[in-house]
Amino acid sequence: MHELTESDYDILHAMENIVDGIAAMWGEHTEVLLHCLDARNPSIMKIANGYITGREVGAPITNIALVKLNEGKDVSDAYITKAPDGRMLRSLTTVIRNKQQQAIGLLCVNFDLDAPFQSMIHSLMPTIGTYCDHSVTAETFARNSDEMMHSSIENVREQVTSDNSIPPSKKSREIVTRLHDLGIFDLKDSAQIAAKGLDISIHTIYRYLREIRAN
Predict the structure, then answer these.
(1) Average model confidence (pLDDT) for the chain?
(2) Which residues of 122-152 are buried (b: 16+ CB within 10 A; e: fewer)?
(3) Considering only CA atoms, which of 98, 120, 124, 114 is closest in space to residue 1?
(4) Which residue numbers delimit the Transcriptional regulator DauR-like HTH domain (predicted)?
């Protein structure tokens, strides 16, 4: 370890949201923490769900974390550890490096294997309302930008077509408006692809876009 610079700390601070993001994704039974490897005070600088091991910001780096740092892998294999109260944890450690390839931090994830199964499943499931909101556009896991655009256009077209509150004469414009709000028209050749997918002229697409952007 070495004394960290201001730019090293900038990198670590930029990763604090990742701690919260992983914890939000995997729920209350997953502890996520960011270790600072400053030689002056190697300690936790960010932690989520710290009640799993009883730690908080400022707690010292663990012996296992130091072992993983010295293994030579930037992403460790998953390993089993024990929390102070005896519960079993499935853990993973990722080394964070600066531009000089010096290790400046560790991102550690500890999953509580002894958590009750029902509670574990509940924490992984989004609120039921997420599944019931049919106004939300389905996320598109496309292999390329053209596929993503085609899928997005089709999703929005189906939503608008099935919405009887939108007059037939307004549906094309509503589709273009929603695609615009999704940022589809920031992509190359999107207007041509939309025109073909909606079976309207590209001039109509451009007219709608001028009207939308003028408001």
Answers:
(1) 85
(2) eeeeeeeeeeeeeeeeeeeeeeeeeeebbbb
(3) 98
(4) 153-210
Considering only CA atoms, which of 157, 42, 154, 156 is closest in space to residue 106? 42
pLDDT digits (tens, 9 = 90+) for 29-88: 999 999 999 988 889 999 999 999 999 999 988 888 788 878 888 999 999 988 888 889
Residues 155 and 138 sit within 8 Å (Cβ to Cβ): yes
Nearest-angstrom CA–CA distance, 67 and 141:
38
pLDDT in tens, 79-130: 998 888 888 999 999 999 999 999 999 999 999 998 887 777 777 765 544 4
Neighbours of 73 (CB within 10 A): 12
What's the start-to-end Cα distance of the chain, in Å? 56
How crowded is residue 167: how many other Cβ atoms within 10 Å of its Cβ? 8
- Asked if residues 47 and 33 have their Cβ atoms less than 8 Å apart, the reply is yes
Helix axes 202-214, 190-198, angle to 10 degrees: 110
User: Which H or E run contains 195?
Assistant: helix 190-198
> Which residues, other chains included, contact 172 with Cβ-Cβ below 8 Å and sequence gap of 6+?
198, 200, 204, 208
Helices marked H in 44-126? 63-69, 117-124
